[in-house]
Design a protein that fits this description.
Radius of gyration: 32 Å
Largest sheet: 4 strands, antiparallel
Shape: elongated
Helix content: 25-40%
CATH class of the largest domain: Alpha Beta
Mean pLDDT: 84
Order of helices and strands: HEEHEEHEHEEE
CATH architecture of the largest domain: 2-Layer Sandwich
Low-confidence stretches: 1-20, 204-214
Length: about 240
């Protein structure tokens, strides 16, 4: 009998606990979200260019591509760009195939024939003196680079701008919560949680592609303005006012 009573007690405990949880009132909350955008002039440019070399022999094509890129790298050194600011973005070797002749539909597929290769070497250069962007592009093209991928702008101290955007977003969220609590006749008890959204650095306006004909030095290259965006979501516990 004692064993039966113990089993009944143990089996009854979860039901008692569940009933107790179900009767507990939910904490009333108020959730607010805000976004802030901080504009900032870029202080860094990233120029991406490279060299594509076609050829029949893979070894010879690689040799020609390497020799051409060596000239480009020498020109960058002449421009006093530190090697730490030059990064290989990609290096690819693409076989070129002969188009297969027309064959009957029931014939087995023909083995593709390689007739050559294209070796591509692409590098990205970080330029910290923005007045030199046009000169750098022109010099590397003169040195033999035949593929210009474009440029984009950045910030070396992006973290401080992001923190300022977060600060502004949090202030706007607190202000919104205060206005809503007053309109709803409730009081803000405490912040239960605070979450930040993703950050994004983007140009203020779409960047046009640069025409590479003629002298790049004469092309007006404008860095424009970057915008750093941050969002904050606050959840408040509220109570009747």
């Amino acid at each position: 009998m004692r064993i039966v009573w113990l089993l009944a007690l143990l089996l009854g405990l979860p039901a008692v606990t569940q009933a107790h949880d179900e009767t507990r009132p939910e904490t009333p909350t108020l959730t607010v979200s805000e976004t802030a955008t901080v504009p900032h002039a870029p202080d860094t440019a990233f120029v991406t260019f490279g060299m594509e070399t076609p050829g029949k022999s893979l070894a010879e094509t690689q040799r020609q591509n390497s020799a051409g890129m060596s000239k480009v790298m020498d020109r960058l050194r002449d421009l006093r760009i530190d090697k730490e600011l030059i990064q290989t973005s990609s290096f690819t070797v693409s076989p070129q195939y002969r188009l297969p002749p027309n064959r009957p539909t029931d014939a087995p597929p023909a083995t593709p024939e390689i007739i050559g290769y294209v070796v591509s070497n692409v590098v990205t250069v970080e330029i910290r003196v923005l007045d030199r962007v046009g000169a750098v592009i022109e010099e590397v093209l003169k040195a033999g680079a035949n593929s210009f991928q474009g440029l984009h702008w950045g910030l070396r101290d992006e973290r401080s701008v992001r923190l300022e955007a977060l600060k502004q977003a949090a202030a706007k969220a607190r202000e919104k919560a205060a206005v809503l609590s007053k309109a709803l006749h409730v009081k803000l008890v405490r912040v239960l949680s605070a979450n930040e959204g993703g950050h994004m650095v983007r140009p203020a306006a779409p960047m046009a592609h640069m025409a590479m004909e003629g002298s790049v030095r004469d092309v007006q290259i404008s860095p424009g303005e970057l915008k750093v965006e941050a969002s904050v979501t606050l959840i408040y516990e509220i109570a009747p006012n």
